Amino acid sequence: MKNFDPSTLPSSRKGSMMPSKRTSLVLIAMGLALLVGCGPGSTHTAYVSLPDSNAVAALRLKTTANTGSNSSNSVQFTTIVGSPFPAGNSPTAVVVHPAGRFVYVANQSENDLSLFTIDSSIGSLQEVLPRTPTGLTPVALAMDKGGNYLFVLNRISGNISVYSIDSGSGALTAVAGSPFANFANSVALAISPSAKFLYVANPNLASVFAYTINSGVLQPVAGLPVQVGNGPLAITVDPAETFVYVPNSIDNTVSVLSINSNTGALTLLGSFPTGTTPSSVVVLGPYLYVANLGSSNISVFSVAPTTGVLTQITDSPFTGVTAPLFEVLDPNNLFLYVGSQSAKTISAFSIDTSTGALSAISQSASTVVSPSSMSVSK
Question: Is the pTM value of this prediction over 0.90?
């Protein structure tokens, strides 16, 4: 076949074979629009405690958010080389330092903490020995946003250990007066965004305790604890530091408490129905997400900003995970990660930030054994 020679075209047609400046700009704009439609992508590392394996799993999370369709957002899970990494006996809680250099793990059957350094290139872990002693049966961890202090809830000894964190090495040093008295069988704690207050949930007493924080030192708030529903298993504070939320596993409700911004004192505003056996709670903007272990779904509520009244959004509760034990928000607040107790997986849901609705993502990560907690690096 003879090659096409544009010089044989009439002059009026020659120009049409080459894009004008205006056409070029249009094509560039179309390309940019396509790129924007594909949405931002980001990569994070996540660490998952595995009590039955005495180990910590490490995952790489590659996310893509499509601005045009919430349902087409995706998460790719990749196991980091060397995972899972050995920890102490029955590691039940894990938290990543905000600087992304250290991981702390509570070993509940060993009564101590593991400190791991993170390989900045691949995300693998290296434990730094010796381990740090705690009280009896450490079950939950909390850290302030600045990464200055680590708070450890000791279930059997009924107290809270507090450690200052060396920013260079990650080493822990107990603050003066630690451990601080609480009550036996408390299971969850949460620090307020300002790091002024610490809240603790106790299922046996159906109560929430509160403490003020001063350079890591805890002081009980007068007049507390406050009663909530039966069997509180988790607790969180909203970013505006206005409300505390507590899922009550026996009552199948979530309690909403208002915070006195000066003293940290709590007032129960009400309790609202959830699914069966609510086990975890997270808050994102005006929406509250409650994982229901028994009914294998997630209840999503809109929150009235002044009264704290909860209203289930359209299509709530959302399915797509079996026996959800815990929830963790993606650092970009576009995804919700959920650990399944019976399926032994980490699943992901895409969040529609305009409505609060969830869309299950098909890919998940197997943890082989039941995961107990998860923390994601920024």
Answer: no
